[in-house]
Amino acid sequence: MYNQARLTTLTVLFIWLGLFLAACGGQTPTPTPRPAATNTPTAEAEETAAEEMETAVTNAVTVADQALGAGNIVTIANVTSDGAGWLVIHAQADGGPGPILGFAPVKPGNNENVIVTIDTAGATETLYAMLHVDAGTAGTYEFPGDDVPAKDANGSVVTPPFQVTIPNAVTVVDQDLVEGTAVSIATVTSSGPGWLVIHAQADGGPGPVIGYTPVAAGANTDVMVEIDTAQATETLYAMLHVDAGTAGTYEFPGDDVPAKDAEGSVVTPSFQVTLPAPANAVTVEDQPLGEGHTVTIAMITSAEPGWLVIHAQADGGPGPVIGFAPVMAGENSDVVVEIDPAATTDTLYAMLHIDAGTAGEYEFPGDDVPAVDAAGKVVTPPFNLIVPTVKLGGTEELGAFLVANNGMTLYLFGVDEPNKSTCYDECAVAWPPLLIAEGEIPLAGDGLTGELGVTERDDGTFQVTYDGWPLYFWYEDEKPGDTLGQGVGDVWFVVEP
Questions:
Q1: N or C: which end of the chain has fewer CB within 10 A?
Q2: Does the predicted TM-score (pTM) go above 0.85?
Q3: Nearest-angstrom CA–CA distance, 470 and 430
């Protein structure tokens, strides 16, 4: 019974202990507070910050002296920009950056070998590579405006100077003439203002100047030069000259000497041109018959080798052939043609023929037919043979004396008075006077130093005089060179010039 009571007491104690523990089991113990963390940097953090500061972008431009590149470009070795921007090339003015010649965009960070095309017309030997920001409309260069010059870490505008050399050079290709009178030079690069001069070929090299035009400093493209096609050869030379004398005035021979390239050689490339066939044409003037019974044709342009043929007049147009001479292709000046004096007429025709048969042999009628001009018409201008009324003749015995246009000897009558004939009736039959139509002016041939005139005879006709002496023929003279009237009656004499 004692043991049972003891057990009951222990059981009650355990129950009370369980209830107590249950009541306390839902509470969480309060944690012990920890010290707050501080912002003191560690050594590692300090090192990282320092590296970031070292790699921060600083605006900078690196550029070297250089020759102007093809296409009028300059190359900037390195551009470092703290944002999107522009690399701007300035000419020099007053010792610093002047007018803008060109620009190119740059991206943030490093930009290597930035190429900028410049306007060489305003280029100077010293240029400036200036970095600008792109602060306005992105990708649009706006200066003056928002895209102001960029500055470096010291607050200075980034704009290093550099020297540029423009090499003299000419590029030209073989070609046809432009509109028949000009050549086109593809590119001309000049270190300064100058001239592009076209030379014809002579002795295997540059010969006569046949055209020129001014060129600006730098690159010039598609340069047109009007040339004298009459002097043009199939091979031409495009020579660059300086403009060292009076600006804008071509002076060579003179100050505007040929320009040289980097190797010291004259810049003068050759090129081939296809020359158009010349238009057939003949230019001739009225003229007296020349020495040796010749006429002279001032200019003949022939598309091919041919003949200049002189025709007498018949039925108002070209008639019998009275002389011919060969002509070469191209221009022929002062072509002399011997003609048959017995077949001459007052009006003659200078007709161009081709040489289509045996070369060098005149064959007409035959293959050497008349040539035609651009309009398809036969080239045959007329001209008048100016026959002098009095000209110079002579013999070995008597020397020089006056003759008529037919070659017959002329005489003076020693008893005549100045400008007054005394020879009439039977005298005039034996000594016919040299007559001329009323109002006609007598023409003097070459070599006459005296003065021809006209006097009216008593019968109303008009007689030619020389220094006042009336002129006569002698009826016994039969052919040119006869002087049978010399000394007759000691009053009739040949007339010395």
A1: N
A2: no
A3: 15
